[in-house]
Design brief:
six-stranded antiparallel beta sheet, D-amino Acid Aminotransferase, Chain A, domain 1, 398 residues, alpha+beta, 25% strand, seven-stranded mixed beta sheet, Rossmann fold
């Protein structure tokens, strides 16, 4: 009997379209002999839809077609089953799923919000749990964890948007204690959205003004000199981990931009602004394997596993590094809990095809679920059984 896998994607996030691209790539590569694939699309308005048409990227050129032909549903636990039930006056079960596979990017979905809902209803799901997802999405929390574990990171500072609005001079002075050039990032976004570099105070102000459009917390980091960017993927959970090949990122900018990652050269936007024919992270320019010496490669592999375990990640993550080629030193930039295209292109050079990678991720999820339900989360005894009724509430009235 096939495992019914509900692939969840989209959501209220600036990385909404990137999620669609990643999810459709994955659904097309899943082993259909093992899995019944059920697409679950979350619109930018937080409505959930299912239907076979959602596996075709051309569908997303016209949202009206989705609303007309796909089924508007809710996911919940019903009589021992996890079901997608239609909304409206005549409710019915549209699909039943055994396991959820979130392929989502960015705030409101990748950051523990969706994972919390899935864990609340009790369904097995692929990827990191709530805690690892929160830390993996928040660049400030992430750096604080890495720092506490003694992992190498660049010098940084952070602030709230309200701090900047109330006293911009104080924030600018705080940031200026770092060495220019610096890189400015919204704390909880990915895919290079809202990220800028600044070589002086004037550029810093412009960068902050844009970054606070996306987030209420901003992180500013020193840029690494003699920079080479490399990425590596880790597969597993807190017990077992394996690492992929290391890629070297090639960019014409100070960092890999959203356009370089997902659009590439000569790509056109279709109806509604959706990018046609995008290959996801395959659109980015890269060199595999990275041109770094074996000592640096060994450091990257070790730090990647350490970072993965430090925040309790699960499934497939991508860890991005900044390397100072002159000092021969690697710094952890960030961890991506659900990387674009699930970083499959980093595993193929090791002999692991995308279909096998997806299979491994599902197997890890099942193992994580079995461990989670084996732990004690509640007690059979009911301490309210002897509760004194309304008389027991008298103390609360004072």
């Amino acid at each position: 009997m096939k495992i019914k896998v509900g692939v969840i994607f989209g959501g209220e996030s600036v990385e909404h379209e990137v999620s669609i691209i990643s999810a459709i790539q994955a659904m097309n590569k899943m082993d259909q002999e093992k899995y019944e694939i059920i697409p679950i699309y979350i619109t930018k308005n937080r409505e959930w839809y299912t239907g076979e048409m959602l596996r075709d990227i051309e569908t997303y050129q016209d949202m009206d077609l989705i609303k007309k032909y796909a089924k508007n549903v809710v996911l919940y636990f019903k009589k021992g089953r996890f079901v997608l039930q239609s909304k409206g006056l005549f409710k019915r079960v549209v699909k039943e799923i055994d396991l959820a596979f979130p392929i989502v990017h960015g705030t409101n979905v990748e950051d523990g919000v969706l994972q919390g809902y899935l864990q609340t209803i009790g369904i097995p799901f692929v990827g990191s749990d709530v805690y690892a997802s929160v830390v993996g999405q928040d660049k400030i929390y992430m750096k604080q964890v890495f720092e506490s574990e003694g992992l190498p990171i660049t010098n940084y500072t952070w602030f709230y948007d309200v701090d900047y609005k109330e006293d911009s001079d104080r924030v600018i002075d705080k940031v200026s204690k770092l060495k220019f050039p610096v890189i400015i990032k919204p704390a909880t976004l990915g895919s290079s959205v809202g990220i800028h570099t600044a070589h002086n105070e004037e550029e810093l102000i412009d960068a902050i003004d844009d970054a606070i459009r996306y987030d209420n917390r901003i992180v500013v980091e020193e840029m690494v000199a003699n920079l080479t960017e490399v990425n590596i993927s880790v597969l597993g959970n807190y017990e077992h981990q394996s690492t992929s090949e290391i890629e070297q990122v090639l960019s014409a900018q100070d960092f890999l931009t959203y356009e370089e990652k997902y659009i590439g050269k000569g790509k056109m936007k279709g109806k509604g602004g959706f990018v046609k024919s995008s290959k996801g992270m395959l659109s980015a320019s890269r060199k595999i394997p990275a041109e770094i010496d074996e000592k640096l490669a060994s450091d990257v592999r070790k730090y990647a596993v350490d970072a993965f375990r430090a925040i309790g990640s699960s499934g497939v993550c991508r860890i991005d590094f900044l390397i100072d080629q002159k000092k021969k030193k690697a710094y952890i930039n960030e961890i991506n809990s659900i990387p674009g295209s699930l970083a499959f292109y980093l595993w193929e050079p090791t002999g692991k095809k995308y279909t096998e990678l997806l299979d491994d991720m599902i197997n890890v999820a099942i193992k994580d679920y079995k461990k989670r339900i084996s732990k004690v989360h509640s007690f059979d005894s009911n301490i309210l059984a002897g509760f004194a009724g309304s008389k027991g509430l008298k103390g609360l009235k004072k």
